Each structure stands twice: as structure tokens, then as C-alpha cells.
Amino acid sequence: MWLKLLIFLSSFYLLMCALLFFFQEYLIFFPETLPRDYKFKFNQKFEEINVKTKDQKILNGLLFQADTSKGLIFYLHGNAGSLRAWGEVAKTYTDLNYDVFILDYRGFGKSEGLIRSERQLYEDLQSAYDVMKLNYREDQIVILGYSVGAGLAAKIASSNSPRLLILQAPFFNMTDLMRYHYPIIPTFLLRYKFPTNEFSKACKMPIVIFHGKQDEVIYYNSSLKLKRSLKPNPTLITLDSQGHNGMTNNPEYKKEIEEVLRF
To answer: Do 72 and 94 form a contact (C-beta atoms < 8 A)?
Structure first.
């Protein structure tokens, strides 16, 4: 009986590992899809901008325009939802006189295609960044990434020369986060590494990190480890009562981000 139980548990474990490896995208990304004729509604000026990828897919983005623009926030959102909801974060930054561009990744919102690899994601985002550089100098661009978007933001910043990199609730890297939440799963199965720490080391611009002390998804020490691993140390701003979601609406965050963008 014990032998049969052991065989069953071992088989179940191997099956779960196989599913994790082959269906990883469905465990990391949770897109909301929108019909192509969906009409966005926001209480501020914006326009839709489509970005063509290397393999001719069309990705949908929104550019929110401030009344008087100091530059651009190139905003990379988290792993769920679509621009229908993520567009609401723009007002925090347009109120500070920054335009905001937010892109929906493949399979999110009205964007075509499906995410198939980490490299593909980086190439898509570089294409979008190149489009923004047609109208903004890099010394006017701030790259800001939230959660999974923080890992993406660190990569794009490391390959370009924006004025500033802002990371909201970043993980040290995905392997570290996987060990924290799922220690029994072998990390070699992970195809999406998102090495925020390694990309950040290659960044020449200042880095500012925001993290909620009560974050239940990406543990707070992720940012402490990230800060300690970088020379010079980035600025880490801790929001004591903040969980993983809703940081942009936190009054303390709004006060701090105004100071960060001012300088």
C-alpha cells in the first residue's frame, strides 16, 4: 500500500512539473481580452497607438496626454487585466505634467498574438519604446514597471538610456520568487526568469524602488535584496501599509512620486 501511495504521489508530482513547464504562460499571465472594436473611456485626453512587432503582430497601446508635458512615463503594467483598467493609473502622472504610454502585451486587451517567450516580450517592448522615441528624447523618458512589469522595465532600461527607472513592487528575479512561494518545485523548470537584479546592474540611470511592507504577492525583502545587490544603491521607498495592489492610489505614494519626478 505504501509503495502504491509513493508511486501515485511521485507520478502526480511529475505530472504537475510537466504541466508547469509546458503551460507556464497560463500560470504567469492572466490577460483580459477585449474586442477589436472596444472603445476606451477615460476622463482625460488619450489616443490609441498601435505598435507592429517583428513578426507583424499589432499591439495596442494608449498614450495619455498631460496639459503641459515635461516628458513621458513609459509604463509597463502587471501580469493581469488590460488597458481597460490599467489606463486608470495614468491620471496620477498626467496630473504631474507627464504624458503616459501604456502597452498591452500580446493577448492582453486588443493586442494580437500570444506570449511565447521572455525574449519575445523584450523585443515587443523595445519596438514600442522605439516608437515613443520618435516623439520624446530619452532624457525626457521615465520607464516605470509594476510587479512583472518591473522586470520588463529593468530590461528595457538596461538596453536604452532613459532619464530614470522606477520599479513598483519588483521581484529580485522570478527564480527567487518561485523558491519563496513554491520551494518544492525545481527552478530549472522555469522558462521565464525575469532577472530584475541582473538587468538593473546594467542600468546607467538612477533607480527608484517602491514596495509595500504588506505585499502578499512579491515579498518585501525582494526589494531589500535588490537594493543591496546594486552599486550605487538605488533609492528604496517603503510604503508601510501597502499591499501588492492599488499602490498608485496610495496618498503616500502620490506624495513620494511627485518628489521623485520633480528631481
So the answer is: no
